[in-house]
Amino acid sequence: MAVPIIWSLHDVSPTTIDRAASIVDVMVEAGVRELAILIVPSGVWTDGQLETLRTWERAGHVLGAHGWTHRGIAPRGIYHRLHSSLFSRDVAEHLGRTASEVGEIVARGEQWFADVELAPPRLYVPPAWAQGAMPLSDFRDTPFRWVETLTGIYDVEAGRFRRLPLIGFEADTGLRAATLRVSNAANRALAAASRRPLRVAVHPHDFDLRLAGDLRRILASGRSSYLLQQVGS
Hints:
Blueprint: E1 5-12, H1 17-29, E2 35-39, H2 47-58, E3 62-65, H3 77-88, H4 99-115, E4 123-124, E5 146-148, E6 152-155, E7 160-163, E8 166-168, H5 174-194, E9 198-202, H6 212-219
Parallel strand pairs: 1-2, 1-9, 2-3, 3-4, 4-5, 8-9
Antiparallel strand pairs: 5-6, 6-7
């Protein structure tokens, strides 16, 4: 039996929301029950765009905070440089910052949801899944229920981390496509062997990139959605 999927749509901002809306429609039509939609708050949002977010919220999707600008600072230290050159490029907003600075980013995103009259976000996903210096335990003082990192999802309420395989399709070069294909195959095999849900991350341009066919095949496979509420159960 195919493992269920935790679906997420990343990097929704004023400049990507039209494309994101098309993806939401495609995924819902394919039978995705709950989609984690990750919002990058910074920018000028129109009333119509904010109403789109509210419509998704009313439909039962989980709106999550995804950093503030989704832009990192100049790399500091070997790990940050390697992460930037091999994986995240310039989007790992938490890396190179102190725990206090990361906390300010998290709090600013949380406040934005209140400012635009959205429900308090329950999911936080740092850009590029890079947690940075802020310990997961510090999220106990926030409204967030779940924090997703590269290796899994932390249930803030239960104080428990669950390792979950992850695949993605953001391949704009041949090298990135080859690397992701290997990583995706390994993580799909891990999900099947461990019978753990598979996290599938979708970005706004993935249906136009080199692994679009792989993404479409998974979407058409009819795999059931695994709801975030089940992570802590």
